[in-house]
Amino acid sequence: MARRSYNQLCGLAAALDVTSQRWAMLIVRDLVPGPRRFTDLFEGLPGVSTDILAQRLRELDDAGAIRKIELRDPAPVTLYELTERGRELATIGAQLARWGMPLLQGADRGQLHSNPRWALQSIASRCASSLPEGVAEGYVEFVIDGSTDLSLALTPAGASIRYGRADEAPIARVECTSDAFFAALARPGSAADTPDFEVDGDLTTVQALLGALR
Question: The pTM is what?
Answer without folding.
Answer: 0.92
